[in-house]
Amino acid sequence: MGRFFKKLRDIWAHEELRKRLGITLGFILVYRIGSFIVIPGVDSDALQEQMSALGGGGLGSILSLFTGGAFSRASIFALGIMPYISASIIMQLMGLAVPTIQKMQSEGESGRKKINQWTRFLTIAITLVQAPGYLASSVVSVPGAVADPSGFWWFSAVLILTSSTLLIMYLGERITERGVGNGISLLIMIGIIATFPQAIIQEFNHPDTNFFFFLVEIAALLVVIGLSVALVQAVRRVPVEMTRLQANPGSYMPQGAAARSYIPLKVNSSGVMPIIFAQAIMFVPLYLTQSESLADNEVLIALGDFNGFWYNLLFFLMIVAFTYFYTAITVNPQQMADDLKRQNNFVPGVKPGRPTMQFLDNVISKITLPGAIFLGLIAILPAIVFTLNLTHAQAFSIFFGGTSLLIMVGVILDTLQQIESYLLSRQYDSLMESGKLRGRQGTSVSGMAG
Q1: How do residues 273-282 score in pLDDT, each as one tens digit?
Q2: What would the pLDDT profile of 56-73 be if each residue is shown by its tens digit?
Q3: Are 277 and 85 in contact (CB under 8 A)?
Q4: Among 17, 54, 421, 443, whose CB has the most other CB atoms within 10 angstroms?
Q5: What secondary structure letter does DSSP report for 241?
Q6: Domain ranges in the chain?
Q7: Looking at the domain 7-179, which fold is it?
Q8: 7-179 with 202-246+256-432: one CATH topology?
Q9: How far from chain centre, in Å, is Cα 37?
Q10: How far apart are CA 240 and CA 265, in angstroms?
Q11: d(Cα 276, Cα 198) in Å, to the nearest integer?
Q12: What is the architecture, at CATH level 2, of domain 202-246+256-432?
């Protein structure tokens, strides 16, 4: 406990980190306040009564999970950040087939800015399609929810939802730029955490839940959390020999000797993005089943059943596919091999250049497969748990593994690592400001003369 309070003191003493955390918390507060502001002309009490009568589950419960309850309240943030996630998926997939986008991807920072601008425009287009569908299927269709659904009300409601989605996108980008952590992922995580206490209360108060059974559930949940942390943190260390062509003055290492280091290749290099991407696509059949013309389509019904076999099978396969896809675009074995060769480093037993690239690519492929399978299994675990009646409240089973838990674990760990990097940089700056290093007074560090 003492280490925890010491860490808080260190964070508070770091001026830049303190400002960034303040900005992050401020933007998160704006997001949470907006999730409680109901669209003008809508009676949120009627919507809550309708959801209670349906007993939860389905599209409403899943979207409410990712929006912190904003979806079920008909808040101005009801659509959350999902239109932006959908636009990002489309742009990344188009990058594999459209030469124009491929060219922009190769242009560096200027190309990235162009792609981000296109993504924003595509987000607007997707929101303009989703907003009327949400209002028609989840708001206006509920008796008593809207007293006067006039043409002006429709126009203003769609405009509000679209503008609010752009505001959420802006908040996420500003958190990434000026705060701590990935803004988009943080906003999704905050929406999930906001519903977690209520889910625990529902499970504890369920008539079929006794105290001992509840303790067993919590213990099992902690085990799943531990496995999720292990998945996120697991790495495969590839040994690297660092050759010293010149002996450093004052160094114990003789000329031509080599130091051993390693390349940490993560088992799950893609993080939580495959989960977010797959979940965003799985919303499509759920949305389509809300339409009267497609409500009786058996295929869409099967793909829209959160606890159904076909939904979870497709969800699992998409997570595996997106894990490979996202790993391929974020981890570049060719660049790693070129960097090793340029620095005169090498992997023991492997020739520099192309053989090193092939070796690293083979290692990444081997460790990505079990990581992707394990990621997919944890993602569909809530449906397995609820189907086998291992939990009684579906709101609680959603946190028993699944998308929600993986997002929370991944985002929290990434944010903590970024905070730790700021603290380490402060310690390094303090060391440099001291002017002298013990045992190195009057000599250049590591023999590097200015």
Answers
A1: 787 778 778 7
A2: 555 566 667 777 778 888
A3: yes
A4: 17
A5: E
A6: 7-179, 202-246+256-432
A7: Preprotein translocase SecY subunit (1.10.3370)
A8: yes
A9: 25
A10: 12
A11: 23
A12: Orthogonal Bundle (1.10)
